[in-house]
Amino acid sequence: MRFTKTKAVLAGLTLAATAACGGNAGSDSGGGADVQVKKDAASAFPAGTRMKELADAGKITIGVKFDQPGLGFKGAADDAPSGFDVEMAKILAASLGIDAKNITWKETISDNREPFLQSGEVDLVLATYSITPERRKVVGQAGPYYLTGQQLLVKKGSAIKSVADIKGKEVCSVTGSTSLDNVEKKGARPRGFDTYSECRDQVLDGTVGAMTTDGSILLGYAAQNPDELEVVGEPFSEERYGVGYNKDRPEMCKWISDELKTSFDDGNWKKAFDATLGKSGAQAPQAPALDPCPTA
Amino acid sequence: MTQSEQESGASATSMTLEPLIVLDGVNKWFGDLHVLRDINLTVGKGEVVVVIGPSGSGKSTLCRAINRLETIDQGSITLDGRALPQEGKALAALRAEVGMVFQSFNLFSHKTILENVTLGPIKVRGRSRVEAEKRGRALLDRVGVAHQADKYPAQLSGGQQQRVAIARALAMEPKAMLFDEPTSALDPEMIKEVLDVMVDLAERGMTMIVVTHEMGFARTAGNRVVFMADGAIVEENTPAQFFTNPESDRAKDFLGKILKH
Amino acid sequence: MQDVFNQFDLVLKAFWLTIQLFLLSGVCSLLLGVLLAGMRVGPVSVLRGAAAVYVTVIRNTPLLMIFIFVFVAAPRLDVNFDFLTKGVIALTIYTSAFVCEAIRSGINSVPLGQAEAARSIGLTFIGSMREVILPQAFRATMPPLASVLIALLKNTSVGAAFGLLEATARMRFFTNNNADDRMLIFLTFAAGYVVLVELLSFGASRLERKWRVAVR
Ligand SMILES: Nc1ncnc2c1ncn2[C@@H]1O[C@H](COP(=O)(O)OP(=O)(O)O)[C@@H](O)[C@H]1O
Ligand SMILES: [Mg+2]
To answer: Same domain, yes or no, for A264 and A128?
Structure first.
């Protein structure tokens, strides 16, 4: 019961937030990146490539998070998710000539990103998907398209000012996440929850001292509750968000990398950021350097 | 006193003895069924009262009411001048003063014979284990099952189990003993060993209410026979008088039936 | 997989928390369950009713709801404990209802004559429960009680979503960090649970056999 209540509250907040920032959620015109959907895109790709197949089909399935404000979030009343990951996904789809309304959004959680890619359930994953060597053993990850780092979200005025203060303190995040692993190694007592919002609730009622995960995610929650919550300390890890694709279709890497590069250069990447994460007051950072694609 | 004077003075017996168990105007219903009707019964100290009557006449209910395993709806039951209290510790204590022996023995099946006999003394009377076991073994010896002390009830014959049940009740040093058809569930060859123990008990002066159809026991050990039918006491008399010369038609009818087979 | 064996101390630590959760809430559930069963068969009608309502409500509530209540709702009302205690409370609230019913069915399987004999030697209700009825009821209760406890052992994993770093939570760390080895990691942790459950059922059947020998 509390879940739905929280969701409803979040949905309300998001609605208000999206209204304030021009309501780009799910609308193909987009308040952020005004991306031109490429005409006759199919002809641009060689036969036999996955890109050609997708362009011919005219539709694509993309996995994003539904529970992370600013990155990938879909409230109970929304038709489609919104956020930076979502905007970047639209940019990629547009280059295949696929309009935002022909994108099928699939909710992915941390645990099912690889299985979804491997089974072809989704064509791409843009879901706060940090690039790691272990993941690259089973799936393809192009990018990065965004750099962030692990930080701490605390109640305003908390004794925890930086990562140096978490020793022996209870710090929550999502069960099984790398962030929780990291704070455990730094001497905190890790407390895993199923969702970020439950973890945030534990911070609010004082049960745990801090919430930890990527700064980008924490900013989203701080923006929702600026009177009570704040993000403290310098980032103490480097997370590089990549675009997940099926390893069996390695040709996708170059296409994704090229399109990311284009968006960095033509300002669409910055527009996407400003319309989403940028709303929390954060300045658009430098566009990251892309990893080379694996040579087949 | 001549023989006949003694026999006809049955009711006088209880008068002269100090009363121990007194039922006064006791009534009980199970729903619409009136199982005990205006029961007035006084049992004197050391008296042996045999209760007899057709099945369903309320004999068991009478015993259970005296031990407060059943509540009564009207009237009073006193033990040694004290009324039976409501449920609780006081009742539990009073219950221990009246030993009860059941038709189906009801020995504690998870405890050894010796443990069956020592449980009450230790837990209710607060005796030490050593003391309780010493007395327990003596009682088991008295009822002739001393060598079975470390076995479990299921390993004993029915007659042995019933004698242990008697020892278990005696271990509480009760003021009176209630027997509800103690031999009805036994094979014929085991009945005598149980009755012998009961006769011995009667001879030692124990106050006893015995529901039984064993006429031999009633004649040897009984001071008085109470005949019940349909929840009421129909006739009271000495055993000799009752068996040879019953007054009521119900009793005559009943005796005719049990004597025939 | 390498990762799992390199950090096997973390695996053991996680299973130790699983065992702690199981043992603590197992003991508490048995105590509370016995108390509830006693209330349900006892002479006081208010207690009988209260226990019956408790059992009905709890048995029909998902365990997850109880966890949410203890971990999320109660702290809002300033009822808060450390995480292990909250886990034990949530599991105990839930499991005791099932323990109660298992024991109650055990009590009902004890012949009425045993209770009457116990009362006739002067034992109080509580005394006859403790000395006569429950020891016999536990015997009849052993098989259903064993399944309740096995369920409890596995139910400790719900704590993974509520800040308790027990085996399932630890497994999710490893599976998240080692996407290539998910199946093996999963099987390793599943094997851990299998071992614990097997130990539990072995203990239960030993106890059952021992008791059976004692009566025959
Ligand atoms: N617990 C009970 N509930 C309802 N009726 C009962 C109960 N116990 C006994 N009775 C009824 O009360 C009557 C007297 O029973 P009981 O005292 O056992 O008779 P007896 O021992 O003389 O055979 C019988 O008709 C019996 O069916
Ligand atoms: Mg009877």
So the answer is: yes
Interface check for A237 against chain C (CB to CB < 8 A): the answer is: no
CA distance C90 to C112: 35
Distance to chain B for C133, nearest Cα, Å: 9
The token pair that represents A48 in the structure block: 């036999």
pLDDT in tens, B187-222: 989 999 999 999 999 999 999 999 999 989 999 999
Sheet containing B19-30: which strands, arranged edge to edge?
Answer: B33-44, B19-30, B74-79, B82-83
Would the CB atoms of A132 and C72 count as touching at under 8 Å?
no
Query: Do residues A222 and A93 touch, judged by C-beta distance below 8 A?
Result: no
Q: What is the pLDDT of residues B67-120, one digit of tens each?
A: 888 989 999 999 988 887 776 777 787 888 999 999 999 999 999 999 999 999
**B contacts of C111 (beta carbons < 8 Å):** 106
CB contact under 8 A, A114 and C162: no
**Same domain, yes or no, for A128 and A180?**
no
- Judge whether B234 and B248 are in contact, CB under 8 Å: yes
Same domain, A130 and A260: yes
Residue B9, ligand 1, Cβ within 6 A: no
- Same-domain status, A115 and A36: yes
Q: Which residues pair with A130 in a beta bridge?
A: A241
Q: In angstroms, rounded to a whole number, what is the distance separating the alpha carbons of residues C78 and C76?
A: 5
What is the total count of domains within chain A? 2
Verdict on whether the full-model pTM lies above 0.80: no
Query: What's the domain range around A222?
Result: 150-232
